Predict the structure.
Amino acid sequence: MNIVVCIKQVPDTNEVKIDPKTGRLIREGVPSIINPDDKAGLEAALRLKDSQGAHVTAVSMGPPQADTALREALAMGADEAVLITDRAFGGADTWATAHTLAAALKTIPYDLIITGRQAIDGDTAQVGPQIAENLHIPNISYAEELKVEGEYVTVKRQFEDRYHILRAKMPCLITALSELNEPRYMTPQGIFDAYREKQVKTLTRKDLDVKDGDIGLKGSPTRVIQTFTKSPKAAGTLVNNLTSEEAAEYLLDKMKEKFII
Amino acid sequence: MNIQEYQGVYVFVQQVDGKVAGVSHELLGKGKELAQKMGTQVTAVLLGSGVAGLAGDLASYGADRIVLVDNPDLKLYSTRPYAYAMCSVIEKYKPAVVLYGATAIGRDLAPRVAARIRTGLTADCTKLDVADDGTKNLQMTRPAFGGNIMATIICPDYRPQMATVRPGVMQKIKPVAGAKAPVEKLDVVIPESEKDVQILDVVRKESHKMDIQDAKVLVSGGRGMGKPENFKLLEGLAKALGGTVSSSRAAVDAGWVEKDLQVGQTGKTVRPNLYLACGISGAIQHLAGMEESDVILAINKDEGAPIFEVADYGVVGDALKIVPILTEKVKAAIAARNK
Amino acid sequence: MDFTLSKEQEMARTLFRDFAEKEVKPYAQELDEEERFPSEALEKLRKYKFMGIPYPKEWGGAGCDNLTYTICIEEISKVCATTSTMLSAHESLGTWPIYKFGTQQQKEKYLKKLCTGEYLGAFALTEPNAGTDSSAQQTRAVPEGDHYVLNGSKIFITNGGYADTYIVFAMTDKSKGNHGISAFIVEKNFPGFTFGKKEKKMGIRGSATRELIFENCIVPKENLLGQEGKGFPIAMMTLDGGRIGIAAQALGIAEGALNETIKYVKERKQFGRPLAKFQNTKFEIADMATKIQAAQYLTYRAAIAKDTQKSCSLEAAMAKLYCASTAMDVTTRCVQLHGGYGYTREYPVERMMRDAKITEIYEGTSEVQKMVISKYALK
């Protein structure tokens, strides 16, 4: 069975801070990681490799430094890695990104494609389903559990207050939640092999069957016109050095003032 | 694509088991406001099986018109049949805008539709406006980078302009009893090739709790509560105030409470009248989910805790001691008022 | 001279750091309080194949270089010196002699199991009367037919009781002095081999430090490691490599203490300001950061020398000497910067200070390192 896992290298947004003086995002020194939902997807694929001998290819669309994320995937146990990179792909929104990824995936054999539900920088959750649409295959999103039996994939699909048990025939695409599993660590040998024994294959614009009007900034139907950091809400009143009794009385007063009670 | 051909604000109505989701009511409210600015109407798009009876509900929440696709294949949500039906609606009626709730359904359906139609989709919007530069383009604002920045996005050259909208942010209108709106039925036959995912089982999660997004009062606990048993103190206070308990991500990750109580960037956004944060430090990911609350009160041992920067009133102290005392005072105050 | 690590080494550092934070740090205080052996960490170290990092893949190792292994010890030591003691005693002292001096049969029997972590290794040189004067070995090994009979005892042996194999040094010919010492691979269950008391220590309290007792212990002839009488050079060369591990350990302890202290001085306020705003704090931090940087370069230099030079004795001795003294100095200053809180066990710095001391003592005291260095310097 061939499994292709789409991963994205993202800044660790939990570590990103806002400069209190300028109100701007501080991006320097923020480590790059494999997006957590994607890492869970990769782990799911590696478990299928362990249990069923699946062949796992990690794929990423990004700038040249995304190579590191793919090496990490190899170090965790992926068999192959492909980097889709070209200046022409830059500035893409989710439509153009999914279109480009789909074009790349058409050149790689797959039975199952796994993506993460959403990336912690873009937060859209759109690319997975859009890749599936481009490839005309079914997609099951928000996978909390995943099983492969023969030609079928069975998924526990999460909703807010319930779940569905869904079954689809491969080829199909699954988007993984980070709740799906606890990803394994790399091994020291895996890391050295990833850099010394294995290659990251590169696909550029000329390797893909796409039109210029469908990729990168040009191919993006949406456009960002402004970004800003949220202005912090005006600070309120803070009281200190009250006994617990006094503190409770203070809070009760405020609730009455604001007509909560 | 002739942009001028596309008119109207359409709202995908999410219904499960014949009940309309709160976010759809919110979108009808917002949709109406946008439609007025665009000089057009707001249409509710209702997909399902045997759901015609919901028309009245949609009208009372502001729908000027309803497009109904009633088909047994749409009884339960499934990606491709729903996407096929939505695309049929869009192809026939050519709306300028389509809004979806950013739910586990909307965030799966809308991208599939956007890819098929080849148009732009903006995710998780918290603000929608109409541009006043003559284009009347929809301006969609959303958080990114884990909630650290906001981005405003437009889809100038493609139609419809689509957005998924965060639940709990837009305002529903006050429902108008007995309102009526014309219903147009669209017959759609879903091809076999679209019905490629089998639904083997549907399991509801056991929950008799009020949804935190519907609560007017939230008593919220974080890591500072110390251990799961202490959440009972919060339950006591919430009950006295007629609200419910919510939590920060830390308490969910520690396994103290269920994820449906989580407020924050990867949890739910809430706008209660009162948000009382107990033992919550106020990491930016949490603030993203509750800072629009009307009144924010906070109790924390650490006077440097970031939560105090958004709280209207903050007390430095031990929530474990203060909450039980506060609960008794609240009960007494309410009893006194009711005499 | 390129001071940057390779991409593999950087990624390995990220792995070790992550692992140390998530799998080792949560137990550190408990292991110290309860004087408990780090079994949880050992299980994970085995699972993720950290037990044979610098050894070739054909023997079940990870096929990495010595610098990568050194970084592993450094990162783990930042959070728990007990755990890194167990790992470095196994990997540097317990495994290397078999890798370097073992026969094909010995390697097939023991090396793979040690590199994969199936076996835990240990090294037994020190005796009650042979510490710094390690050539004063009293444990005797007498040949008898197809085996040797060992009699004597060893003390302060790391991983004692838990290890499966022990590199034991014994006198086979007292008349030849240093040239009469031989090395043996002794398995835990050889008849006549028992364990004595476990030491109660100032620091690295979770590390199993035990007495080994040999009473007519039967060791098969095939378990003689290297040639008879060549045990002393085996011990000395092994210790050269081991010293790099201890340098890395001391370095990690110092770095861990400094990291904790930087966090603390940014938060703790006195006289209306965080401690970090006071010049004394700033100057202390500057001093410590500089010493640690120098210590790191000496350590990495020694690690690279082990892979690229015929002998790394000088580099290893300098690294261990300097890192150990840096660890003592830095941890002491860190406790001081924490004030009263630093003296309590609620904060980790007092443990780090107690842990640091051993690095000036074991695997050759700082005085021994000076003996080695001066020998080269005075040539």
Summary: Chain A is about 25% helix and 30% strand. Chain A has one domain: 2-214.
